[in-house]
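[retry 2/3] Sulfhydryl oxidase: previous attempt timed out, resubmitting with same input.
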Amino acid sequence: MMNLYLCLFLLCTLFVCCSATSSSSSFHVSRRSILREVHDNDESGADHDYAVDLNATNFDDVLKDTPATFAVVEFFAHWCPACRNYKPHYEKVARLFNGPDAVHPGMILLTRVDCALKINTKLCDKFSVGHYPMLFWGPPPKFVGGSWEPKQEKSDINVIDNPRTAELLLNWINKQMSSSFSLDDQKFQNDHLSSNVSDPGQIARAIYDVEEATSIAFDIILEHKMIKPETRASLIKFLQLLTAHHPSRRCRKGAGELLVSFDDLYPTDFWSSPKQENDKSSVRNFQICGKEAPRGYWMFCRGSKNETRGFSCGLWVLLHSLSVRIEDGESQFTFNATCDFVHNFFVCEECRQHFYKMCQSVSSPFNKARDYALWLWNSHNKVNERLMKEEASLGTGDPKFPKTIWPPKQLCSSCYLGHDQRSNKIEWNQDEVYKTLTNYYGKTLASLSKERGNAGNDGTEGAALEDLIVATNAVVVPVGAALAIAVASCAFGALACYWRSQQKSRKYFHHLHSLKNI
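[retry 2/3] Sulfhydryl oxidase: success.
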């Protein structure tokens, strides 16, 4: 009888947990997908609304999550005739900046709040809205939990004066940003872009590109069904690396969740069973960096042409970031995981072969993280040297962002010891190069996400995740990852416990594969 009560109690608990998880998940899906809602609008040909509608329930979350540098918030009332007449003007400007098809994505987020709805009364009061429409400007994080008072002397949030037409609003924005945006700008007309290679602060915006590149890479893997018996182990190794050292917490969490479920999703007999043909919708729809990515545009990695930079740039930033975040004992594992990942899953054939050839040229194992980071840096420069010549002869390079040797002197003059004119070889101060790599792809890259709560590793997760990464060719089974993640965070712990309970109920524990069997 006691066992019966215990079972009933556990069933009830599980039901409550599942309900809570479901409702929480649906909330996150709704507020995280709101930034892309303009892309999913009516397909009948009607005009899209580009400005994002906010309310008291999603105001803080959306403004916290956006990668935009600035935000405009319009407080209006739907019954106000002046507001209705102003909407087309506001939408003309929002078209330039909002959504995946924006002309200038990721710079400014234009939003609106309807103060006529009771749910927004307190929110509108916090910003002392005294007339409609009333527009505010500021960095998105400053709106989160923020407020505005008319007599406030110093504030990061400013009222936009006289924004009565689209032209006046855009002129005001141009003055604030020292920019030259025009209402006639078209997509990929990126002449306003300036090279960001010598500005160390710009790499902070690449945290969003790293999420974008990670999401696209895994979308390609799933869409092309590239997970096969011979590639399964290499993907697990790379997932372990991402779970421990990805600079984005969202991507670390997603990689960990995929690791926990990997044996269920892709058991070793998956390819010999009929379910391979059907493939699971849960796998196809999996988003490794959460609902925020892919966003459909690039920040730091945006080229002046549609076909330049983007994914390849974001992937290189990810690899460099991983190289400066690992410990000495993880250097050989990281080298193997990276080389195998590129070899098995990078779909650009020539690039894949060139990179793997460089991997095969390494004759001795890496014992220091510094050595691996410098090898990757040197390899990237070799790739750029080769592409510089090809792009110069074919005219296919990006005129705003030509391939170059990194770091440039503007970024690190102390990295250069000399230059042999006859051989055209640079003599490097590798200590200074490594210091620049760790600051640029480590601290600076993670700085923006730390401010917005999506921080990189702060040291507290490393110890708990040490079982995920080993400095050998061995692979840790997903259940080990689950236990490690459970120690690292409550959310991961709950997920791991739930997964283990499922395994028990189905009596799968005795089927788990050992480390040697993968």
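[retry 2/3] Sulfhydryl oxidase: The chain has 19 helices and seven strands.
[retry 2/3] clearing retry counter.
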